[in-house]
Write a structure and sequence with these properties.
Arc Repressor Mutant, subunit A, 2 domains, two-stranded antiparallel ribbon, three-stranded mixed beta sheet, alpha+beta
Length: 135
Amino acid sequence: MTKIRNTKQRQLILDLLKGTTAHPSADWLYQRVRETMPNVSLGTVYRNLGILKQQGIIQELRHAGSQCRYDGNPEPHYHFFCDQCDQVEDIEGPNCMDLLANIQSCMPSHTIEGHRLEVYGCCPSCTRKNLEEED
């Protein structure tokens, strides 16, 4: 993989991604980058996100019906997508990564090079809101 020169814009985008667990959209990142670099374009943000993704430094998260979100943690982990508010959360816990080992044991003659698990539904905040509206 070719080493890409780091730029101030790219570093700021990466710093913003590493500094949040919110899994922001490109638009959110664009607004934050413009606070420091007012002349940056949305296209520049998208280009830099593409480069960071291609280099394996960040993850791009796609969920049907939602805009792409980005994760500054490139290590394998799982995500929960709220279908109502579009919030994205990391799924954490000691047994989460055991799933890959279980899948590998079911397919011993296969070489697994990667995987992605995305769980979707309703987050606690939206669930509470829905219950309150029912009352």
